[in-house]
Amino acid sequence: MAAAANAQLVLTPDRPAKPLATALEINSDASLSFAAARADTAGFARAKSFSPDDGAPEAYWARVALQSVADVPTEWVLPLALHDVSAVLVREDGRMERHRTGRGVPLAERTFPVAQPVAIQVALGPRESAVLYLKVAEPRGSYATVSSPIPVEAKAFERSRRRSDLFQGLFAGVFLALAFYNLFLFWSFRDESFLYYVLFLLFSGLFWGVSTGHVFELFWPQTVAPYEALQFFALAGAAVMYIQFVRRFLDTRRTAPLPDQILRALLVLWVGCILLGALGVWNLAPDLAALTSIGILTTTFSAGIAAHRRGFAPARAYLFAAVAFLALGLAYIGLYLFSPTLQASIGRPMLQVSMLTEALLLALALSVRIRILTSDKAAADIAREKAEATAHALQETDALKTRLLGIAAHDLRSPLTGIVGFSEMIEIETPERPDVHDMTSAIRRGAQRMLHLIEDLLVTAALDGGRLRLNRRPTALAALVADVIDDYRSRADAKQQALSLHHEGGLALASVDPDRCRAIVENLVSNAIKYTPYGGTVRVELASGAEHVRIAVRDNGPGLSADDQNALFQRFRRLTPNPTGEEAASGLGLSIAQQLARLHGGRIEVESTLGEGSVFTFVLPKGEECPVAVAPEASCEPELQMA
Question: Distance of CA 621 to CAs 495, 519, 601, 629, Å?
Answer without folding.
Answer: 34, 17, 7, 18
